[in-house]
Amino acid sequence: MTYILQLPLVAEMKGKYWFFALRLRNEPGVLSKVSGVFAKANVNILNGVHTIAEGGHADWVLLTDFTKSKVEPSELASKLAKMPEVIKVDYGIKVLGELGFPAFDFKLVFHNENVAVWRTTWFTTFFGGIARYFKESGEVFLYQTAYVAGYMISKWWMNKAKTNDPLKLIQLAGEALKVLGWIRDYEVVKFQDEPLEVVIRVKENIESRAHRNLNIKANCYFMMGLLAGYISGIFNKQMIAREPACEALGHEFCEYHITPYKAA
User: Fold this and answer.
1) I need a labelling partner for 50 at 20 to 30 A (CA). Which of 121, 129, 194, 262 fits?
2) How many CB atoms lie within 10 A of CB 112?
3) Contact predicate 15/67, CB 8 Å
């Protein structure tokens, strides 16, 4: 089963929608009490994200539907603000055409770092466009850019995970890529220290999807560079990646072979 995590960022206006942002005391049962207020007012909570914020408080940003409620958003906000568990209440919606956006400021965070969201369609257009229009020079650009990024990412994860275990760090990268929507699944097929070689299989990576959508027969140079740079950072040794199997070329999966770089 695949669960859906819908971020409360943009709403198609199919009802009387309002965004709410609540800063709550971080105590057991608070979320239940607050959601009960929405339920009693017959307000449907469509989606939301609950996060522990700075200072130990909890922030809850959510999208609600007042279509079947006889209570006004201002009335509900006032009632919430009087609860001892609630520190602050913001609410509102900016409607542009048939889309609604939150009327208050917030930032997106992944593992205590600010992040930005880019739709998969935009990513695939970006990768596919470079592969189609810049060909070999585009492949070099994607590989080298991703290599540097992968190297830096490895150092970041080593610090965050508090481990230097190479296999665990490689698995950590796979799990992170899954969580962030870059791949559907992965498998570490081979991991050996002497001679050093890592083989990783990936299902439905974002780059191969781009090539298939645009009917481009090309390898995934960005993913190759990303993995080569990442594993280079883990071993503090310059690595190079090959992709003998690629979904964009008709294979069942993308397979990456990462080995030490040997100058010609």
Assistant:
1) 121
2) 6
3) yes
Same domain, 31 and 105: yes
Q: What span, in angstroms and rounded, lies between the C-alpha atoms of 235 and 237?
A: 5
Bridge partner list, 19: 63, 92
Domain boundary among 71, 93, 114: 114
Closest Cα partner for 39 from 63, 83, 69, 19?
Answer: 69
Nearest CA among 115, 104, 102 for reference residue 11 = 102
Whether 4 maps to a domain, the answer reads no
Q: CB atoms < 10 A from the CB of 81, how many? A: 12
pLDDT tens-digit series, residues 224-257 = 999 999 999 999 999 999 999 999 999 999 999 9
Q: What is the CATH number of the domain that holds 186?
A: 3.30.1380.20
Sign of CA pseudo-dihedral 193, 206, 100, 35 = negative
With vertex at residue 54, the alpha carbon angle to CA 51 and CA 59, rounded to the nearest 5 degrees, is 30
What does R_g of the chain's alpha carbons equal in angstroms? 23
CA 205 to each of CA 145, 177, 220, 235: distance values in angstroms, whole numbers, following the listed order: 17, 9, 9, 24
| C-alpha distances in Å from residue 133, one per residue of 71, 129, 220 | 55, 6, 15
Distance CA 175, CA 198 (A): 16
**Omega within 30 of 0 (cis) for the link into 195:** yes
CA distance 212 to 249: 8
pLDDT digits (tens, 9 = 90+) for 115-145: 888 888 888 788 888 888 888 999 999 999 9
